[in-house]
Amino acid sequence: MKVFYVVILSIAWLAVLSNASFINQTNHALKSIEKFYTSCKAANPKENGIITIQVNDLWMEVYCDVQVAGNGWLVIQRRVNAKENFFRDWSTYREGFGDLESNFFIGLEKLHLLTVVEPQELYVYLEDFDGESRYARYDRFLVGNEDDLFALTMLGSYQGNAGDSLRFHENMKFSTYDRDNDLNTGMNCAAHFLGGWWFNHCLLSNLNGVYLNGSYSDVKELHAKGISWHHWRGLTYSYKTVQLMIQPK
C-alpha cells in the first residue's frame, strides 16, 4: 500500500512540476509578447537589420542602423541605386514605399507619428561617388500630420560637415507631382524636380530626386533634378548613397 501511495504522490508531484514548467513557459511567452520597443534606440540592436516596434497602437517594421552614426538610429529613407522610383504621388508618399533593405521611404503618416510621440533628432548621411561621406544632424525633427500637409515643422539646431541645406525647407509643406503645396507660384516644384519633398521656392535640397551618377553640370535640362544637397556638391551633383535617420532625444 505504501508503494502505491508513493507512486501516486510521485505522479502528482510530477504533474505539479510539469504544470509549473508550463506556466513558467507560458508566462515567459506572454512577457515576450508584451515586451515591445518604441524605437531602435530602445531596442539597442547589435547589428543593422529590421525589427518590429510599436508606436501608440501601430505596429511597424523598421530598419535600425548601428554603423553610420552609432547605435539607436531608425532609417526613414535610403537611396543606394536607381532601382526604386521616387517620383511618386501623394498617396504613395503618405503610405511609404520601397524595400527596407535597400531603397525606400518610410511614409509620411509613420514619420509624423514617430516624430510627434517623442522628440526626435534627424541625421542626414551623404556619400559621393568618390567615397567621401558627410553628415548633417538636427536636434529637433518634427513632421506635421496630413491636415498640416505633413509640414516640416521643426529642425532644431544644426551640426555637421555637409552644410545646412535643409534649413531652407523648414516649415514647408510636403509636395508631390499631384499635390502642389510649395511657395513657388510659377511651377509645381515636385513635378519639375521629379520627387516629393518639402519644397520652398523651390530647393536647396531634394533627397528624393532622380538617382544620377555624380556630376551632371553639362546637362542643363537636368539642373537640380538629382539627389540634391546644395551646400556640399551643389545642385548639379547627385549622391551615390543617402540615408535619413531619426532617434529619440
UniProtKB/TrEMBL annotation:
GO terms for cellular component: extracellular space. Residues 1-20 form the signal peptide. It comes from the Eukaryota. PROSITE patterns: FIBRINOGEN_C_1 (PS00514), FIBRINOGEN_C_2 (PS51406). Pfam families: Fibrinogen_C (PF00147). This is GK22020. Residues 31-249 form the Fibrinogen C-terminal domain. The gene is Dwil\GK22020. SMART domains: FBG (SM00186). The keyword Signal applies. Keywords: Disulfide bond, Signal.
